[in-house]
Amino acid sequence: MGQTEEAAAVTDELSPDMRDRTASPSLCDLFTRTLARRPDAAALNDPLNKLRVTGQSPMRLTYREADTAITALAAQLMNAGLSPGAVVAVQLANTVEYPLVLLAAWRAGLTVALLPQLWRRVELADALGRINARALISASRIDIVDHAEIAMNAAADVFSVRHVFGIGKHLSDGMTPLDPGAVHEMPRLPMVDAGKAAVISFDVTVDGLIAVPRSHINLIAGGLAISMESGLPSPARILSSVIPSSFAGLVSSTVTWLLGGGTLSLHHPFDAQTLDGQLRQEECDTLIAPAQLALRLGEAGMIDSLPALRHVVGLWRTPERVESSAEWHGGQANFTDVYLFGEAGLVPRRRLNGGSPAPLAEGPYGLSSGNQARAAGEILLTPNGTLALRGASTTPMAYRPARTDNTPAPDSVDTGYGARRDESNGMLHVTAPPASLAAIGFYRFRTQDLERWAERLGPGTTFTTLPDQLNGHRLAGRASEAARVREAMVELGLGPLMTEAFRERGSAH
Question: Which CATH number applies to 38-192: 3.30.450.40, 3.40.50.150, 3.40.50.980, 3.60.20.10?
Answer without folding.
Answer: 3.40.50.980
